Amino acid sequence: MVPPCCPDRSPSPALSSNEFRRAIDRISRSLALALLLLLGGCSGADLLNGLASAGGVRVERNVPYTDRLTLDLYEPEEPALDAPVLVFLHGGGWDSGSPADYRFLGTVLARRGVRVAIPAYRLWPEAGYPAFLEDSARAVRWVRDRAPGARLFLMGHSAGAYIAAMLALDGRWLGAVGLQPGRDLAGAIGLSGPYDFLPLTGKRLQAIFGPEVGWPDTQPINHVGPGAPPMLLATGLDDDTVRPANTARLAAALRAAGHRVEEHYYPQVGHVMTIGAFAGLLRPVAPVRAEVLRFLGLAED
């Protein structure tokens, strides 16, 4: 039996996986051949980052937001006055991943008018729950101070989607830095996220989230209540890393509480491709990029 949530096995798009092979079937033969030739010994993130164009994008890397932690910024060279600001929280099972893996995402969104911040946060075994929530809340505070009047959104993939959902639903974390989810967030986006994954059956997850008595408090679904921002939740129906039921259950809970929520399910798409499909080469795999841009109030090109 597949557990309700399995840990991430890859911090970035693993294009040599079976999921990539399924994705190939959804794009043209010529494009598939080109991708296979380009892969060589590169990781999926290296390939997508190497092909991402930074034209029209202003990039700042390793900008400190605390004494120890940094973030990467991707902004249009000439942002519109009403350009949305997006804090993207990377995945990696709370023990791996880096902002540098997502250069392709930052440049793609910035070229379409979004100001993007991708923060690092403490990972296991350096720190477990709730350190990654505390760090991410500090990053959101930094971004809010940099762009005080902008529409501010959160987005995360996998473990990052968990963090985004917790910041949006459990007011303790943003509250600790003087923010309120319903007041300060224009919306939150979760891609392939674990939101309702008890019991924790693996020793690694048990170590990350601490004693069993506290596990219910770690679940985003248990914090659905008044004051949540609008949310967009999306997942692939072939996800065997985080069950799509996580998305369905959280969406149902939000809807029952009277909150605005969009949910999208992509047939024949697995865990990695909900983020990989932001890249131009993989855009045909799933319409996730267009749906995210629409949620941000922008049009897909």
From TrEMBL:
<protein>
    <submittedName>
        <fullName>Alpha/beta hydrolase</fullName>
    </submittedName>
</protein>
<dbReference type="InterPro" id="IPR029058">
    <property type="entry name" value="AB_hydrolase_fold"/>
</dbReference>
<dbReference type="Pfam" id="PF20434">
    <property type="entry name" value="BD-FAE"/>
</dbReference>
<keyword id="KW-0378">Hydrolase</keyword>
<feature type="domain" description="BD-FAE-like">
    <location>
        <begin position="71"/>
        <end position="254"/>
    </location>
</feature>
<dbReference type="GO" id="GO:0016787">
    <property type="term" value="F:hydrolase activity"/>
</dbReference>
<dbReference type="InterPro" id="IPR049492">
    <property type="entry name" value="BD-FAE-like_dom"/>
</dbReference>
<dbReference type="InterPro" id="IPR050300">
    <property type="entry name" value="GDXG_lipolytic_enzyme"/>
</dbReference>
